[in-house]
Every structure is written in C-alpha cells, then in structure tokens.
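USER: If only I could read backbone structure tokens as easily as an amino acid sequence. It would mean a lot if you studied the pair and described how this chain folds. Here is the record:
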Amino acid sequence: MAPPCGHCGKIHEAHVTVCPVTGGRLGSASYTLVNEDEALVGRVVAERYHVGDILGQGSTGTVFDVEHTSFGRKAALKVLRPRYTSLDTVHRVFQGETRAALGITHPALCEVFDVGTLPDGAPFFVMERLEGDTLASRLGRERFSAAAAVDLMMQLLSGMDAVHERHLLLRDLRPQNVFLAQRRGCRPVVKLLDVGLARLIPLERVQAEWDVLRAVTSASDVTGLLSIPYYLSPERAHGSHGIEPSSDIFVAGIILYEALTGQKPFASTSWSGLLQQITNAQPAPLGVLRPDLPEELGSLLARAMAANPKVRPSSAREMQDELRGVFDGSRRGSASMRAVPVAMPISEVDSLAHTPLRVSAESPSADPRASRSAAPASGPATDKPPKSIDDLYEEETRTDRSRFDEAMAARLEPVDEASADHPIRTVRPPRLGAPEGLEIDVDVEMDEPAATSRGSDLESTLDVPRAWKAQGGEDDETATMQLTPELRARIDRMTKLAAPALEDSSVAPPTRRLKPPDGR
C-alpha cells in the first residue's frame, strides 16, 4: 500500500503523480513503479539484452536503451506497466490487439523483433532504436511548410492504411506517438508508436486527472496526458463502442491542420469545453491562416474534421489520393496560367487548367495576378487574336532549337571542310588517274602468300602508279584519307602479291575482278 499523501494526508493510487486535492506533485515514495523501472538499469533482461538508461516514460510504460549481449545491436525495450489498469488487463491487451499490431510490417511502423515477460510478470517488447524527435516537439518549435506537411501526412496515412487492413485502429494517434526518425540526406521517416496500446489508457481515468493537471500547468503545456483530449474524435469523446477507421481519419486531419497552421483546431481550458468544441465547433478555415495554400486543401481538411463520419474520406488511402490530387492539380494549373497570354478570356484559361505545357524563361510572370494587373481595365491588351496552345508551343520549341544550334556551332572548332576530320564532310576524295578499261586481277587468298608470289613488281609492269603520281594523286589522296601505317603496309603487301598474275596469264589463280574508278 502506498504511504499517505504529504499534501492532503489521504492515500492515493500508485499511478497518481499529482495530489487530486491540492494539485501538488507527489514524491517518488508514492510512485513505486518508477522505482521498479529504475531497478532494471544495468541488468540483463531475458539473458540477452543489457539495459542502459531510461529513454522515456509514458502512460503505457517505460522505454529503455538496450544492447544485445551477443552481437551488440542497439535497440529500445518497452516495459508495459499497469498504471491505469490491472495487470490482467495488460496481459489481455498485450496477447490480443497489441501482438496483432506488432506483427504488421510497414516502413511507417516501428519494427518489433522480440517480445517477452519480466520476472515480475510485466510484458515487454524490443523494437528498433530510433534517432530523432517526436512530432509534438517539432510542432512546439516551428510550423511546417506545405511540402513537409504533405510528406508527413502521406507517410502517416500509409502506415494507417496498413493498420486498418488488419482490422485494427490506432485510437491513440497524437503527435506524441508520431516519431520523426532522422536519416542522413533524407527527409524524416515517420514512425507510429504505441500501436495497439490505446486500450491501456481508459478515457474515464484520464478525465479524472485531466482537470487537476490542467490547473497546475500553463495553458501551453499539453504534454503527456494533457494532450489526449485534443486528439479525440467525436465518436471517442462520446464513448461510442462502434469506432470505425474514420475516427483515425479525423485525428489525421487535426494533425495536418496543426502542422500547417501552428495551432490546434480545437482548444479549451476544460475537458467538457474541449469535447463540446470537437463535437459541434468548426475550426478556423485553413485559407484564413494560410492563404498561400490551395483552397482544395482547406476543403479536404474541413471534410476530414467533420463531426459526421460519413462526410470524411472513407479510408486512409482515399485521403492520400485526394491529398495528392490537390497538389498535382495545383501544379498543373499554375503552369498553365503562367503560359496563357493576358488577352486570353478567363473561360479559355479555365479550360487549359490541366493541360501540360513547358514554360520558358521568356514566359510571362509566374504570378497571374501581376499579368492581369498589367492589362487595361477594359478591352484586350492587343488587337491581335490570342495565340493557341500549339502556337505557344511552336514558338518555344523554335527558340530552343535556335539556341541549341548556336551552342553547337560555338563548340565546333574551325576545320577544313575538305579534310576527313570534319564531322560533316561532304567533299568526295580525288579520283584515280588510271586508264579506262584496265582490269586488275588481285588474289584474294591472303593466308597463302607463297602460292601467289610470281612475277615482277606491279608498279614496274604497269605505268599506272607513275602516271598517277605525276598528277599528284598520291599527295591528294594522303592529304584527304589519312592511312595508318598498318593499313599502308597491308596495301603494299597486296600489291606485291598480285603482280605475278600479270606475268603468266596462262595459269591464273582464282581472282575477283576489280575496276578502278570510271571517272564519273
């Protein structure tokens, strides 16, 4: 039994940390579970996990930094403690919904690779060690950009969809249970924590302490138990038993709204007042707080946070598709508006909102409002008819082609067009000066030089090479066609091997007939 309270003299339950009568914080003597968890530091759990420091304590248990004794892998170990329920209830939840949730594999869910029970009967599970910060801490420091908020929500909805496919609910979705794991060179990776543990936090027990805790903390302090009612759906606030996936969709809308605006959509200093707002009040429109965002995003958030579950997106996957469509449509529309001339009627602009179009640097201003303000108040800006999309595209591609040709011309070094090194050479090589009608028999069996080694030199028998040299053919040919030493030696060898065939015409080897150019 816990000792009497030092503030009011009464005996409180073991989980109470603040005196319900005076609001004063209780000492560690009446909170024995903390001492039990602290006793694990430095010990070895389940004969394989060496327990280090305490990473954190929440409403469902304590998280330790552990290391595997065999191969030194860092991990996090969470011990479930019956702070608000009996140990039997903890075991029922752990063996049922919690085990089912821990078995889901998804990048947005914290990986769990071991479970067990401590000697005192408290169950535990071992999960991956994450480096980063919670979404609650991030929201307390800054407001998200549109890109960061959408990336966060797309990952969160992806993990939510995986949980819903297993016929489970998150229930206790709030920024404290959304971890932003840091990866070098990448955006933070969303990890949903405490999936399947929501039943360990009965709302009636939370409500009994909420008003007392709220009275002793500042208005901006909504950590721990104080954050729970801010992220309740109307169904959970009323204690309904038939909770559907739309309840998680409602909370996802609250988180996205807070990430974009920096403030909670529903706020009150009392439990009943907060639930009344969640049930009946409408939050400030997103367009009022963030006029730079598309109107469609504000409409989507208003539907997601609707009190009627039938109005909300039917599933996390549907909300993902709608969220993607909002920004895809916005990008297509803005590109089209930048490429449309000022004189084009508004009706034609609307018809081109989803037409892809490349925009060059000479296109009009990216802000359509600036273009419209530059035009006269009445009448078109010019007497010429508005250009069509095909005309705009042709002008742009024509400009691109001319710039490309100029760039390529600048890169080409000046080279003689008659040279073989020129990349676009069109000059034909000089013609041979051999007499017309002369036929040369050339042996094609190059592998047997001994069988064709007869006769004298072809150059001495035929006067063709000398006449050709006299005309300067060799000089022109070598200036135009640069022959490698290997190719020159091969041609000389072929010439010497073909000469004997002309000396003895009675016995000629198998040949093929080659003719010099005919001069055409």
Q: What stands out?
A: Residues 27-32, 332-382, 448-456, 473-479 have pLDDT under 50 and may be disordered.
